[in-house]
Design brief:
Layout (H helix, E strand, L loop, with lengths): L6 H29 L3 E4 L6 H6 L3 E3 L1 H10 L3 H10 L8 H11 L14 E5 L4 H14 L2 E5 L16 E4 H8 L8 E5 L3 H13 L2 E3 L11 H11 L3 E6 L2 E9 L6 H7 L1 E5 L2 E5 L2 H9 L4 H18 L2
Parallel strand pairs: 1-2, 1-3, 3-4, 6-9
Antiparallel strand pairs: 5-6, 7-8, 8-9, 10-11
Amino acid sequence: MAQPVTERAYQGRVHVESRRLMTEWMGELGRAEAAGQVTGALMISGNCVELLRACHVLPMFPEVTALQNAIRHKSLPLILKAEQAGYSSDNCAYVKADVGLVLEGGFGPGKALPFPNLIVCNYVGCNVYVKWFEHLADISGGRLFMLDVPFARTDAPSAADVRYVVVGGVAVVLHGHPRLTADLDLAVDLEPPAAQRAIGALTGLGLQPSAPVRAEDFADPDLRSAWKRERGMPVFSMVVTADPLRAVDLFVDEPIPFEELYARSVALDVAGTPVRVASIEDLITLKQRTGRLQDEADIAALRELEKLGDGP
């Protein structure tokens, strides 16, 4: 009869096996330069390590190296070294620990960790990491590849798949006309499944309806029509209760058919994230319907931006 494995015994076996695997891997890296083995630096999340292994590329993980130095209480001097070289004090400690190790001579020819021949920056949503790998390529002379590896997907849209278009004051600002605005106006696909996903995403961020209605009711076209007809609600307002300045307004109908609005929208970069913003033409159309002084001022500004866009 097999002996029961206690939690402590299991943890001990995992520790021993982890140490063996790490030692073998680090040994391979230490021999890579002399053996002419091609090495490739990868991020942890969403990486393509199986592909590189199949091509006989030995993976390196700068994040793991930084973490190992932290476990050994060796990271602080490396972080300070990177800050002395110009890295911001509020930058990611992983980045600075790794860069500091390079500056200290911990990487490179003849070292236990060779410079990678390939730097595969599999973008996972963090622009700091993108810059980190760009710097690693500059330092090492390795070839940099930017590869956006998707996470597991299904044929059907997930709860987080939401098509939207930014409209209103924020859209005006993103097109290049600075002005104050208090909330974020969005047009979303109002087909019930899509509307449900949009509401699920917003409530997941802590937003709740300002009006005394249920958030999920937004997906019901009959209720939206009643809100507009009986309550004069052109938009469905949502706020974070603890921070009322975080507010989102959703159109309750489609002044412009959503498919057309989305097709003509432009993807503008906001802090490294592509954001769908209504075209200037559609923004003008939407604002012409309100008659508000602010919207008239926005239309004038948008027409000027339109002229600049038509220039040489």
